[in-house]
């Protein structure tokens, strides 16, 4: 199943009660003052779209950012929002590619099977001349029974096991400068650099003209980085958000076994025994 759908495909399903549209836009990192993406959603969104607040829907029992909540908590949140696990779910963001793949990954990892991303996001929708609306949207409470796919997510202990093997295939979505240790981390008191044996694939390298590159270009990119799509791959980044961009790109490219290290650099780099390489 191709996770990407076109504006035209979605436009024919706007009146379908089983189609749920989610705006999953997080504020871009490092922009001052911060962009209020919820306010932007309220001002202009695809008709009927709900706001999927990744920050609010993450686990707040941990100081780590954007961690998956428990299946029980996610079930309650989705049910209250009006998202059924049996629905056709279409996710978009307001600009380019950044956070919508994280929402896609969260929903898929929690058991929703029919989850898509609008290729090109809100910009492609409006450029196609399709309608938008303002104000909040609401749906009646629904039934979402989350079932965590443990194979899709790695914790710190599992990552350390992976780091001890020769077939690591850990793909880091942070910028090359942060990976190399030549630029600071945006979070205080964290060293930049990278895990031993990790491969730098800045998530922006997967993006072209505000959308993911075509499948053939994604395959070329992974091949150039010497990534074996038939072997296990784990993606990581700063806080688990843009790691999902790589996970989505890998799925489009035909990768067979992909997991995401949810704690990512925010967790790894603060470990007293963490080996941090700079080059």
Automatic annotation (TrEMBL):
Q: Which SUPFAM superfamilies match?
A: Rhodanese/Cell cycle control phosphatase
For this protein, what reaction is catalysed? 2-oxo-3-sulfanylpropanoate + [thioredoxin]-dithiol = [thioredoxin]-disulfide + hydrogen sulfide + pyruvate + H(+)
Q: Which GO terms describe its cellular component?
A: cytoplasm
Rhodanese domain: which residues? 15-134, 164-277
Among its keywords, does the record have Nucleotide-binding? no
Q: What is this protein called?
A: Sulfurtransferase
Q: Which Pfam families match?
A: Rhodanese
Q: Which keywords are on file for this protein? A: Cytoplasm, Repeat, Transferase
Give positions of region: Disordered.
179-198
Q: Which NCBIfam families match?
A: PRK11493.1
Q: Which CDD domains does the entry link to?
A: TST_Repeat_1, TST_Repeat_2
- The yes or no answer to whether the keyword Repeat is present is yes
* Compartmental location: Cytoplasm
Q: Fetch the InterPro entries from UniProt.
A: Rhodanese-like_dom, Rhodanese-like_dom_sf, Thiosulphate_STrfase_CS, TST/MPST-like
Supply one GO molecular-function term.
Answer: 3-mercaptopyruvate sulfurtransferase activity
Organism the protein comes from: Tunturiibacter empetritectus
